Amino acid sequence: MKNKEKKSLFSIEILGILLGLLWIAPFYLMIVNAFKTKRDIFSGVLGLPETWEFDNFIQAFIDLSFLKSLFNSVMITGLSVGIIIIFSSMAGYALARNKSKFSGFLFFVFVAAMLIPFQSVMIPLISIFGQADMLNAAGLIFMYLGFGCSLSIFLYHGAMTGVSRSLDEAAIIDGANRFQLFWKIIFPLLKPISVTVGILNVIWIWNDYLLPSLVLSEANATIPLKMFYFFGQYTKQWHLALAGLTIAIIPVIIGYFFAQKQIINGVSEGAVK
Amino acid sequence: MQNRSPAFWLFLTPVILALGIVVVIPFIYGLFYSFTDWNGLRATQFIGLEHYINLFQEQEFMNSIWFTIKFAVASVLLLNFFGLALALIVTRNIKTNNLLRTVFFMPNLIGGLILGFIWQFIFISVFGDVGDLLGVEGMKGWLSTTETGFWGLVILTSWQMAGYIMIIYIAYLENIPKELIEAAKIDGASSFQRFKNITFPLVAPAFTISMFLTLSTSFKIYDQNLSLTNGGPYNSTQMVAMEIVRTAFSDNQMSYAQAKAVIFFLIVAVVALTQVYYNKKREVEM
Questions:
Q1: Which helix (H) or strand (E) holds A117?
Q2: Cα B192 from Cα B91, distance rounded (Å)
Q3: What Å distances lie between residue A164 and A189, A190, B12, CA to CA?
Q4: pLDDT digits (tens, 9 = 90+) for A138-162
Q5: Other beta carbons within 10 Å of B148
Q6: Which A-chain residues 148-207 have CB contacts (< 8 A) with chain B?
């Protein structure tokens, strides 16, 4: 009996490892071929490079204006997510502490807005922001607050059920106003859900392509946007295109390496709720 | 915090403004404009249902809807199959289970645009070389026909998102009490019986969640479509989201594109409301 179980566990492990290899194969093929010359790729993509060509990376790094794109991505993602966390947590708190019908209605509107796909508001949105001369990074960050606040408020609102009202009352008796009460006492207690909200929004905003492509000029391009221009420039030159793709992925892999556990837990919480 | 308290309003004003200006107002404007000849700046007249009548007769738009539905069905099936299979593997007591979770989940963190470009290389160059090596004619010329473009998109999406669905199944699988499984083992239930009678019913809610999640995500896919096939050949692998973007920003038919966007909203909303309905029904039954 024990032996049989060990055997079946062993075959499951083998199956898992094979699937795992299949899953990382595209990344392996990308990296290996990014080190080849154009001719080397032409003669075969499956083997290792004849000579390891680092020049591909240097050229891709320059053509992607990588440091600038990275800076743009970090600024836009960082500011957007920061603002989403600040304003959604405040709203989630206010809505959870007010039990009136009106407050319930507002909460419903925020949740219902999640039904609307981006393409259904995209055209008037770009027109409105265009006429207000707000098709720039500041406008984009404001748009991310608009699109991101619904799910974030929903998650904060849910987390508030675990924060006792007596905390509010005690703080008010001690003479704190609502802002002090929220930032000094409530917000620190919401830290776990803030991590989840932060992770979900970072993944989405960091990788977003369509909205920045409609809002930002090429000079302010984020990584995905720049990647799109770059790829169009190097069709049929896989050695450079793949080197560019490899560089574009590196920041994500580094982030994943350091925050793996939080990321998987955050995504799991966001999905199951 | 009462309705009249200034703090209530101060806490809510930023998000009310943002949601209002970014989502609610454009949505209402969009509905209105879809009945006019709006060109992005001004509308001169009401044209009633003209756009809606035209779009149902437009071959390209109807094609994109059918293509999207077929794509969504195929992806939902494959995603849930792989998602559950991967979850069943990594929840077993094997040495590599943490490493495997990390690997399976990784593609979710990278944008669809970048992944689509990587897979363009896989389908065109790697499949071509492997096809040569094995002498399989069918592996060559991928993405150059509607059929291979379709399966290309399905494979890319399944590979990218299976790890995400896996996470959802893991959350449910790890909630199954160990004693239940042990008791069934002692009673002599085979591993298939244990799966059918214990694991499966307890994981059923995850099916509903994953099914609708994958369904609505598949309907809204744009980036992967753009970077993998760019709608080609001859717009035959163009999905609804891309078709709307093109009508608006390449053909400059703003109000017509907006009418398509309204239909798109209705489809997505029906899917989502069906989910809410099922979830409510299930909660009642439990």
A1: none
A2: 16
A3: 10, 12, 21
A4: 999 999 999 999 999 999 999 998 8
A5: 20
A6: 149-150, 153, 177-179, 182, 203, 206-207
Which residue among A87, A177, A255 places its CB closest to the CB of B15?
A87
Q: Report d(CA A224, CA A230) in Å as an integer.
A: 10
Angle value at C-alpha A240, between A237 and A242, nearest 5 degrees: 100
- Determine if the peptide bond prior to B233 is cis (ω within 30°): yes
Residue keyed to tokens 């499984």: B181
Name which of B2, B110, B174 to mutate to probe chain A: the one with the most chain A Cβ atoms within 10 A of its Cβ.
Answer: B110
Q: How many whole angstroms from its chain centre is CA A24?
A: 21
Class of domain A65-233: mainly alpha
**Taking chain B, what is the end-to-end CA distance rounded to the nearest angstrom?**
35
Please name the fold of domain B58-285: MetI-like fold (1.10.3720)
Query: Which of A13, A24, A149 lies nearest to residue B15, judging by beta carbons?
Result: A149
Enumerate the domain spans of chain B: 58-285
Contact A39, A53 (CB under 8 A): no
ipTM comes to 0.93
The DSSP code sequence of chain B is --TT-HHHHHHHHHHHHHHIIIIIHHHHHHHHHTTB---SS----B-TTHHHHHHHH-HHHHHHHHHHHHHHHHHHHHHHHHHHHHHHHHTSS-TTHHHHHHHHHGGGGS-HHHHHHHHHHIIIIIHHHHHHHHT-GGGSSTTSSHHHHHHHHHHHHHHHHHHHHHHHHHHHHTTS-HHHHHHHHHTT--HHHHIIIIIHHHHHHHHHHHHHHHHHHHHT--HHHHHHTTT-STTTT--HHHHHHHHHHTS--HHHHHHHHHHHHHHHHHHHHHHHHHHHHHHHH-
Report which of A159, A68, A152, A158 is spatially closest to residue A110, judged by C-alpha positions.
Answer: A152
- Per-residue pLDDT of B20-59, as tens digits, reads 999 999 999 999 999 999 988 888 889 989 999 999 999 9
Range list for CATH 1.10.3720.10 in chain A: 65-233
